[in-house]
């Protein structure tokens, strides 16, 4: 199934690091890549810009999980 399982079956109940990396489109735990992709996705999915609350929450959750895993 791989890390892109959420594309076919929805999001997992509890987000994994692999899912978080897939959501943010990063292939390594590099702070610069995480932050750059996070900012791009937040702008594209922010509810004030017509985006989805749910997707914004998932993007935030993905960033938080990956940053926690870096420590």
Automatic annotation (TrEMBL):
Source organism (scientific name): Nematocida ausubeli (strain ATCC PRA-371 / ERTm2)
Sorted UniProt keywords: Membrane, Mitochondrion, Mitochondrion inner membrane, Transmembrane, Transmembrane helix
Name of this chain's protein: J domain-containing protein
Chief site of localization: mitochondrion
Cellular compartments annotated: Mitochondrion inner membrane
Signal peptide: none
GO CC term (a single one): mitochondrial inner membrane
């Amino acid at each position: 199934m791989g890390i892109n399982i959420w594309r076919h079956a929805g999001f997992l109940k509890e987000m994994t690091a692999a899912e978080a990396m897939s959501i943010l489109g990063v292939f390594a735990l590099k702070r610069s890549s995480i932050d750059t992709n996070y900012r791009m996705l937040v702008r594209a999915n922010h509810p004030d810009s017509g985006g989805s609350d749910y997707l914004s929450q998932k993007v935030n959750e993905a960033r938080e999980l990956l940053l926690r895993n870096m420590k």
